[in-house]
Amino acid sequence: MPSFPMPRGPIPRVLRTTSFRLAAIYVVIFVLSAMVLGAAVFWAARSALKQQMGARIETEMAFLREEFRVGGVDRLIAVVQSRGKGASALDYLIQDSRGVHLAGELPRVAALEPGWTMIDVPEASEDGGRPEQVQALTADLGGGLLLAVGDDFGRTSEVEEAIATAFLWTVGLAVLLGIGGGVLLSRAFLRRVDAIANTAEAIIGGDLTRRVPLRGSGDDLDRLAGTLNRMLDRIDVLMESLRQVSSDIAHDLRTPLSRLCQRLEDARMHATSMSDYRDAVDGAIAESEQLLDTFAALLRIAQVEGAAPSKTFAEIDLSALAETVADAYGPDAEEAGRALIAKVAPGIVIRGDRELLTQAIANLVENTLRHTPPGTRIELLLSDDPAAGACLCIQDDGPGVDPDDLPRLTQRFYRGEHSRTTPGNGLGLSLVAAVADLHRATLLIENRHPGLKVSLRFAQAREALT
After folding, report:
1. What is the 3-state secondary structure (H, E, C) of 54-82?
2. In Å, how far from its chain's centre is CA 143?
3. Torsion of CA 33, 37, 39, 44, to 10 degrees
4. pLDDT at 11
5. Helices (H), 253-343
6. How many CA atoms within 13 Å lie on the side-chain side of 254?
7. What does the alpha-carbon distance between residue 383 and residue 95 come to, in Å, rounded to a whole number?
8. Global pTM?
9. Which of 106, 235, 386, 443 has the greatest CB tally within 10 Å of its CB?
10. What are phi and psi of 273, to 5 degrees?
11. What is the per-residue pLDDT across 409-456, written as a single tens digit (0 to 9) for each?
12. Are the C-beta atoms of 340 and 330 separated by less than 8 Å?
């Protein structure tokens, strides 16, 4: 007869969770441990009961032998008859050499031998069932007179059965409670997981503002949710930055591209000599180089914003780095009619990227040289405050900037009204802001009246080891 597989329904989702599996594993381990412990307790209790029973019988036997020695058989029979009463009394048997039962509750035994033996008592059986068993110690008192003292072996069995029953109830309840607890934990776990999954689905659907709800318990899932929310915040910032870059490119690069196209069209329509063509080509090359510089700066900013701090960071002597930048731009400042003065505290060390920090400081110095008039005094200051950390400042006594422009100076391609006539693409301070964010530094731009002050504060600075 062919057999067909029985259809099996899907396993409930709550039983497939990690929390339920862990609870089930814990219950199995607990049951196995309880079984080992229960077996040890059972055998220890059984051994102790047997030892206690044997010690009681041996003590009674010693007492009766002493009574027989003092008073003979009559005295022994009288003592046995008086002591064989009561629920907790021992069982006795006095039997002569011919096998005649003289006294005691135990029945006559045909082949009774000295030592430990098991005696069946049919009269004590319940409803004609299995006879009661008595563990007895038999002693030969001389002349074939035998004395047996025993105790009901069923008492030991009752205690053993009680221990086994209690153990089974305990294990059974532990299994039920473990399964029930596993189900409850799994449901709570599923609610938290579903909240995370729903948030992820909403974000996949385009809602980047959704965040994983926190319960405030501080448990593992709460910490995971907090980490995911910080990751989503970072992704949101990067996406906003990408949208801003796309918008900035669309608006701010249209003008130089249009100018380049007009130059080429004008040369094609109006150039009449090699000199005209050469001038047009030179102008186009200059515009192209400016565009390439702009795209390189944008790429560099994107690389900085997407970099991981720990990958390129190392111990850097910020004091030596600031001195190097000041020495490099000192001749250029002097040639442009400006004074660049460095006041650098020695031995300030931070963790960071040497190349990026060098470029950020150089950008600050270049911006100051480009947007200040001749005769301006420029100061590059580096100090260390044990409470606030290292502070790198570039300040001047020039005209400063319009207060309305201060919050927008780090935006890509933004240039103040007074800066539109000077060379540049409006990305210098954007790169400085990106480098500051990568190094967990604070960038502060403020007017000095007169002049402008740009500060970078590094909270993790420490003194160099000597």
Report:
1. HHHHHHHHHHHHHHHHHHHHHHHHHHHHH
2. 84
3. 170
4. 58
5. 254-270, 274-305, 309-312, 318-335
6. 6
7. 112
8. 0.49
9. 106
10. -140, 170
11. 776 665 555 544 455 556 778 878 888 888 888 888 888 888 889 988
12. yes
Q: What are the start-end ranges of the H helices in 3-17? A: none
The single residue listed with the structure tokens 């579903």 is 194
Peptide bond into 12 cis (omega under 30): no
Interhelix angle for 18-83 vs 153-204, to 10°? Answer: 170
Cα angle, residue 274 at apex, residues 269 and 277 outer, rounded to 5°: 45
* Whole-number Å distance between alpha carbons of 365 and 405: 19
Give me the count of residues in the chain. Answer: 466
Strands of 101-184 (E only): list them.
Answer: 101-103, 115-121, 132-142, 145-152
Rounded to the nearest 5 percent, the helix, strand and coil shares of the chain are: 55, 15, 25
Angle at 253 between CA 251 and CA 255, to 5 degrees: 85
Quote the CA–CA distance of 444 and 116 in Å, as a whole number: 99
DSSP state of 374: T
Mean pLDDT of 185-206: 79
Choose which CATH entry (3.30.565.10, 3.40.50.2000, 3.40.190.10, 3.40.50.1000) describes domain 310-463: 3.30.565.10
Going by C-beta distance under 8 Å and a sequence separation of 6 or more, which residues neighbour residue 58? 137
DSSP H or E run through 233: helix 220-252
Residue 399 pLDDT > 50: yes
Q: Could you tell me if 294 and 427 are in contact, meaning their C-beta atoms sit under 8 angstroms apart?
A: yes
Beta bridge partners of 139: 147
| pLDDT confidence bin for 91, thresholds 50/70/90 | confident
Residue 367: closest CA among 380, 352, 382: 380
* pLDDT above 70 as % of the chain: 81
Asked whether residue 461 carries a pLDDT value surpassing 60, the answer given is no
Check: CB of residue 60 under 8 Å from CB of residue 149: yes
Q: Two tokens at 244?
A: 């801003």
- Phi, psi torsion values for 118, nearest 5 degrees: -110, 125
List the domain boundaries for the chain.
211-252, 255-306, 310-463
- Crossing angle between the packed helical segments 220-252 and 254-270, to the nearest 10 degrees: 20
Written as six digits, the tokens of 254 are 């249209």
